Amino acid sequence: MARLSVLPFLALLIVWEAVARSGLFTAFVLPSASTVLLRIWADGATGELFIHLGVTLYRALVGFLIAAALGILLGLIITRVALVRWFFEPIISIGFPMPKIVFLPIVTLWLGFDDTLKITMVVVDAAFPVVTATIAGVAGVEKELTWSARSLGANERQMVREVLFPAALPQIMTGLQVALPVALIVCVVAEMLTGGKGLGGAMLGASRVADSPGIFAGIVEIAVAGYVLVQGMSAIRSKVLAWHPEALPPATV
Amino acid sequence: MIEVEGLSHTYRTPDGRAVSALDNISLTVAEREFVALLGPSGCGKSTLLYLLGGFLPIERGVIRFNSTPITGPGPDRGIVFQHFALFPWKTVRGNVLYGLEKMGLPRADREARAREFIEMVGLSAFADSYPSQLSGGMKQRAAIARTLAVDPGTLLMDEPFGALDAQTRTQMQTELLRIWRRSPKAVVFVTHDVQEAVYLAERIIVMSARPGRIKAIVDAKFDREDPQLVRTQAFRDRVDEVWALVHDNTAEAR
Predict the structure, then answer these.
(1) Whole-angstrom Cα distance, residue B237 to residue A63?
(2) Which residue among A234, B80, B129, B239 is least packed, with the fewest CB closer than 10 Å?
(3) B133 pLDDT higher than 80
């Protein structure tokens, strides 16, 4: 991923500050950038920021990890077992494009408002891109690769774990890179709809008391958190796929 | 010893039509014999090789390896593919070690054996390189080392040099013969290159297309250690004869 250039963000902050101070809008409609940054600083100083951030990241990441494990496992099984494929393929076709957040009201009745609810919502949403990426990745593995493994003495189980999985890994990683921001989005939306702790809940709280700097602070915090997560995932990708031509220097022979 | 009896194979096209790929094939390959399967594309020679490998289900007929009917792939029949099929996430060493791990050899033995076979194909300096860092010829050397390391009694080769440039190809043919002389095993070598078949194989099974049938079996016993072999009249005559067979000019060949 290309290195992020800082200057456009500085420019944005300056324009924001200038517009806010120009008197075009009231401080309630558009608080100045400096007000919002000071607000984030103050929330950081009291520790409030880190509680909300920690809660949101915990929910999003735990949900993401469960979705990743389930998604890869289910994806692999779907490619190997015809009955499982028969059952899940139509469900995935309908479920993938569907906004899974529609389940929130009923899942709230089942699970209450706490971490379990948000993590469940994250898992349901983030698992889809992982499952579909795994299926597509395995489908693209050339048969010669699996035949080679079988002919070298691998049994079916070893072949799936030692050949299909690593061969599909570039696409699985892409699926995970899609799933991670989805996890954060779903977590924040669920928090916004149900309140309580977390960045989304804090924004809902700020909105209820007409605290517009608090809302803007939340927007900036979520943007930064999302950026850091995506960058981390990209670093993990280059580490995990160190063997892949995309990560290697070009051939010299 | 490989025995094929009455083998037929039909495959289905994507639109559901049944196409006969192999029709009533019977042949034997002796221990340590180098046999070429030669024919135009679509003659079913690769299908026959995949059936020998146990990668495709046998529909009609039987294939026996040392009197036992085959039921699936196994390390007794090593295979080398045209496009190498190396595990791209493993280094050359990792690729060669894979089959040795499956054999359950102790670690030290595996390492020693991998080193030996990597050296045999001349890749010692590239043992820690990933396949994507290697040239085509080097990839195929690595694949051959991986297959030979588990010491299969039979070597199945599916146009292994077909993706290489002419110069590398000639070099690899010579090296394959050198390796085969060092540890002789039955080789079934699929190719559509007449010169290659006559140069490598002791016996050439010429196939015809649609349905795949054995058209002729030609002996090609030469002294392959002779560096001038390809320039001898006997060799050239045999190439012409086989070429005529492949191109359906049996009358001329007689």
Answers:
(1) 72
(2) A234
(3) yes
